[in-house]
Amino acid sequence: MGSAPLRFGLNHTIVITDIHGGKRWWTVRERRRDGYLLEPNDEPGERRFHAADDILEVYLAGRLEYKPFDAAHFDEARRQRMKMAWDAQSPDRQRRALRREVMVKACLKAIRAREPVGSVLQDVPGAVLDENRDRWAEEDRQAARAAFEARRAAGLPIEAGSGPQDTASATAPCARTMSEWIARYLEMGQSVLALVTYDDRKGYRGSHLTPQVEAVMGEFIARALEKGPIRNLAAYHRLLERELKSVGQPVPSRVTFAKKVRAAANRRETLRSQQGQRAADQACRINEYVPDPDWLLQQVEIDHTLANLNVVDDASGVLLGRPWITMIMDRLTRCILGCHISFLPPSWATLSRCIAHALWPKDMTAYPGLDWDQHGKWDWAYTDRGMDFISHAARRSAQLLHFEIASLPGFSPWLKGRIESLFKRFALQAYDYRDGLISWDLKEYDGRKNATVGYAEFRHDIVTWIARDYHPSGHSGLDGRMAPGEFWQSQVDLNFGVAPVDSTGGLRRLLGVSVRRRVSHMGIRVHGLNYNGPGLGAIRDRHGSDLDWYEVRYDPYDLAGVDLLDHVTGEWLTLWCTRPDIANGTTAWQHTFHAQLAGEMARGGVVTEDGLERARAAAQADRDLIIGRGRQGRTKTAQVKLARYLEQGAFLTPIRLFPAPLLPVLPVVTGGTDSGGLITFSQPAPLRLPGSATPVPALVDGSGNPLGGGVPRLTHQGVQAPTITPAQRAAAEVQARLAARRAGRIA
User: Fold this and answer.
1) Start and end of every Transposase-like Mu C-terminal domain (predicted)?
2) How many angstroms separate the CA atoms of 383 and 346, rounded?
3) Which uninterrupted H or E stretch holds 389?
4) For residue 456, which of 268, 276, 670 has the smallest C-alpha distance?
5) Which of 165, 177, 277, 384 has the most crowded Cβ, counting Cβ within 10 A?
């Protein structure tokens, strides 16, 4: 099986870029089993069939942009239909929609000014309502008088409360409602039709029973349920009728009584009366927060777990420790969409890699005979309240990728019971039998001393378990113990594919760490490094001395470049570090370690960029020294630092994304045996500075081998230290005595 086909909505817009850079807008007119009928906007009426496989290849080549609603390229006929749909709305609905549009535009203006999204959604609607309350109230009064005169002139009866709403007593919408309005407004190309609601069609949904009848019937049903389930509704209804007549109250119908019984006699109440409150909460509380999904990729669960297995370096046998595992699972089919392995603690850096691994198709050419074709964009992501899930970077990426994050209550793992069960099954089947396991029962067994599983072997075993053992095997949570992979394929066929990522710009812009910076005469500063580019001069000339805040996104696994969003023009600018010898291939964790080390070497002085370069050379020398010494005289602190220093954010399997993602390295596992596989890394792409005609090569040694900025070259023999240039070797020799003291202190 290949990658899942893409799913588009009818009358949605697709922008396809040809090999020469020209763009053409297409409208989806008809969905077929093996493709779509698309109509070019510049040739109305000329429908052409495009196979699903061809559309997928264009999408993977980075030449397809999905715009569900692109009003700028509508033909005249569709604009007229939209105008007719707007004119068909009642004046009251039009007024409400226009007022919602005022609130939405005010919120979007504040968000684009880089105000916190949470405070904007809470404060701006109330401020807009207070500012326009008097004017809107006067408009409502005039509309009510006009409606009254029109109905009286026509001889129609005047209904109480049939006029427009009272704006003077109206309340501002909540943050959740504003978020939904903004999403609909942007999805429909900023059309006011997206904000039209039909609340006036809703009937009375309250109870028609008197409070006395509600109280008596509630007590009667509660007493009956304490004895067990109510099976004979007719008999109990006669008993209720006798009790209500004794107190002089009207008797509800048997249908109303049956509805009340079904509402009260649910599973939770039955379990509470039979097994207690705790058992009822654990068994049924999940349905209060997480409703069951109705379609494919409607809901996913995301979580981290710390592996109970110690892994070692494949070449030297140096203990690296217990890696963190991040997984994303589709709640409907129980399929694993993406996975990431890292020695860094849970953070947005590790979570973003897992999200990217789940969104785009995976390259499984290194695993002959195995398929992992689960991918696609979801609607809701259910998470706990970890800092990585509620961070600004996570919320901003969710906004760019158009999905919502639902933060469940803390300390409630049963609310994500499906992925928790997956972690337990994964631990028992994948590595529970391996040497180096953390044992809580056998105190005499030391998993750190007995660890033999290599890091490359561990990653290879995880991919093999997911693609060969988990997806094709029956799952007890699915009907008839259907396999997750089989259920996924049936849902893909039923839903005509999966939703594509309707945003472009690469991984750094979509999933990078988001910070706010101002533009100075030296560019911008991120992690103490200067970044500059040709587009920053125009921004300074536009604002002068009154500089604004701009959103900057960077890859935490490669500080070579950053992307800046010009919120005035809506364009992204790529900026490069002015000291590529320090930033190229350097992760944020490595840079922080280099900065701390440079502070120690400066002995209280100012940390300069030259000091960072010397600290980087010294840290690489220390890394080689620790690897060379093996497990002799090593502490857990040194092991943790070494594992995190070697971490480069490599994907578990390469993803099929073009243009190539702005990442330092991509892993390619080529082994096919259970004992361990050959793992290699592609070299970092040459750095192209703005305005340069040819790419600037990476740092090289005397033999022309790229250094990669401290990135270890992994081969079938394991980690090999990168070659050090003569200048770096001289700097390391100058600091040899200080490095020796520091290595002794760490070890």
Assistant:
1) 510-566
2) 13
3) none
4) 670
5) 384
Q: How buried is residue 61: exposed, middle or buried, by Cβ count under 10 Å (0-12/13-18/19+)?
A: middle
Q: Which residue from 590, 571, 592 is spatially nearest to 528, judged by alpha carbons?
A: 592
Q: Which helix (H) or strand (E) holds 59?
A: helix 52-60
* Count of positions (residues) in the chain: 747
For residues 620 and 722, the answer to whether their CB atoms sit within 8 Å is yes
Q: Residue 602: what pLDDT?
A: 87
Can you tell me which residue has the tokens 């030391």?
Answer: 446
Return the sign of the alpha-carbon dihedral for residues 105, 505, 498, 377.
negative
Q: What average pLDDT does the structure give for the chain?
A: 78
- E strand or H helix at 495: none
Q: Ranked by mean pLDDT, which of 183-197, 374-388, 438-452 comes out on top?
A: 374-388
DSSP per residue, 316-378: T--EEEPPEEEEEEETTT--EEEEEEESSPSSHHHHHHHHHHHHS-B--TTSTT---------
| Closest by CA position to 85, among listed 201, 194, 181 | 194
3-state secondary structure of 399: helix
Residue tagged 């005979």 (tokens): 369
- Is residue 112 within 8 A of residue 567, CB to CB? The reply is yes
76: nearest Cα among 120, 44, 47: 44
What does residue 81 show for φ and ψ, rounded to 5 degrees? -65, -40
Distances (CA, A) of 441 to 424, 446, 590: 17, 11, 37
The per-residue pLDDT for 547 is: 65
What is the C-alpha R_g of the chain? 31
Which pLDDT belongs to residue 178?
87
Enumerate residues 6+ apart whose C-beta is below 8 A from 88. none
- Output the CA–CA distances (angstroms, integers) from residue 699 to 583, 600, 684, in the order listed: 11, 26, 11
* Segment 211-220 long-range contacts (CB within 8 Å, at least 24 positions apart): 212/247, 212/249, 213/244, 213/249, 213/250, 213/252, 216/243, 216/244, 216/247, 216/249, 217/244, 217/252, 217/257, 217/260, 218/260, 218/264
Identify the DSSP state of 659. S
Report pLDDT digits (tens) over 119-147.
788 889 999 999 998 899 888 888 888 87
Evaluate whether 652 touches 341 at the Cβ level (below 8 Å). Answer: yes
Q: Are 453 and 317 in contact (CB under 8 A)?
A: no
Q: pLDDT per residue over 277-310, tens digit each?
A: 666 655 555 455 677 788 899 899 999 999 999 9
Question: What is the H or E stretch that residue 48 is in?
Answer: strand 48-51
Instruction: Tell me the one-letter amino acid at 398.
Output: A
One-letter amino acid of 441:
D
Helix (H) or strand (E) holding 407: strand 404-407
Q: What span, in angstroms and rounded, lies between the C-alpha atoms of 687 and 699?
A: 10
Burial, 402: exposed, middle or buried (Cβ in 10 Å; 0-12, 13-18, 19+)?
middle
